[in-house]
Amino acid sequence: MLGGIVGVVVLVAILMFAGSGEYTVSATFDNAGQLVRGNQVEVGGRPIGTVKKIELTDDGRARVELSVGDEQAPLHQGTRATIRAASLSGIANRFVALSPGPDNAPKIADGGFIGADNTAAPVDLDQLFNTLDPATRRALQQFVQGSATLYAGKAKQANRTYKYLNPALSTSARVTSELVRDQDTFRRFVVDTSDLVTAVAERRNDLSSLVQNANVTTGAIGDENVALSRALALLPGALRKGNTTFVNLRSALDDLDRLVSASKPATRRLAPFLRDLRPLVHDARPTIRDLRLLIRSSGPNNDLIELTRKMPRLEHVASTTFPRDIRALQKSLPVLEYARPYSPDLTGWFDKFAHSAANYDANGHFARIQPIFNAFSFTDTPLGPVLTPVPATNRLAGFQTRRTQRCPGGAVQPPPDKSAPFKPTSDYSCDPNTVPPGP
Fold this sequence. Notes:
Blueprint: H1 2-17, E1 23-29, E2 40-43, E3 46-56, E4 62-68, E5 80-85, E6 94-99, E7 112-114, E8 119-120, H2 125-130, H3 134-151, H4 155-170, H5 172-179, H6 183-202, H7 204-223, H8 225-268, H9 270-283, H10 285-295, H11 304-339, H12 343-356, E9 360-361, E10 364-365, E11 376-379, E12 386-389
Parallel strand pairs: 1-7, 2-6, 5-8
Antiparallel strand pairs: 1-4, 2-3, 3-4, 5-6, 9-10, 11-12
């Protein structure tokens, strides 16, 4: 019995005087940012400890002693500590958020330190507003009041808008990290942006008009909300159908690159060509002015626009006459196809017949037409061919009848190169042997 009492006393003494065994670490911040003793220490939004002590260092910084639970102890090198605010509306509602370092990094001993290069202090709104001049603060106030007016009674629509805005906001950290990766480029960007803002400020009256016109435009779009809603409902289907087009456009752009590369030599000669073209364009101005008058002129029934307006009536009339004309032309095609090869013969006849009427007397022009038969023929002699009279009984031997199948070019004696008469096609209905009588 006595031994049991002694054991209990020893256990109580160990628990009371052996220490709590809690793990502590100190972090150095530029300022404590309204942090107080008892504020929570969190990892991933879950409390793991509290703020035990806040002291001022010799260089004017804040040294905060943090108590960390056994589950997260010990911390490792690379751990970052950030003072955050639970909300904007409270006072001294701060907590310390820890981002633990990698497990393979060296451990931070109990009572160790997290350096200032791995800590971040909060920036309060009043600090931000103190950096602004009075005019900027008034403008910001007007912006907030205008935003309140803009969203009055339209909270549900705004919430739906922000739902689709969330992906863009979630990737803003990655965009920001990419922007600040190249400090020199980012610095030039900020300087150029400052110049741009200055230039925009100089045109603030035009910008104000732009905003007003945009307000009118937005209002007009809002009045057509039913049509806009229907267009947005049809947009996904249109985009899906356009996906194939965009994919094919990729290969078309590759071909276009080769076209552009092949066109570069020609484009170098384009500038001299355009300089030479300038006088032509200058001289073409009267023609273009006349063309404008042809298209539209004052007065009735004297320009192409009025002619176009009368086209429907012409179309109504032509709808009955054109089919008949087409059938007539189709039926005339065989006739024209047969007569076309004889165009030279017909032209020659007109020409020679006109020569026969060149004589004239007191009554005017007259024609002498008489038949000529082969009264002579050529007879070969050692001195060459001579004309010899044809016997009277045989003078009409060259007179021929029923010659109705002459080929094109068969109205004259065949030339030495035998180019006439000819058959336009192998199955053309004509007799190439039908030629005028005589040598």
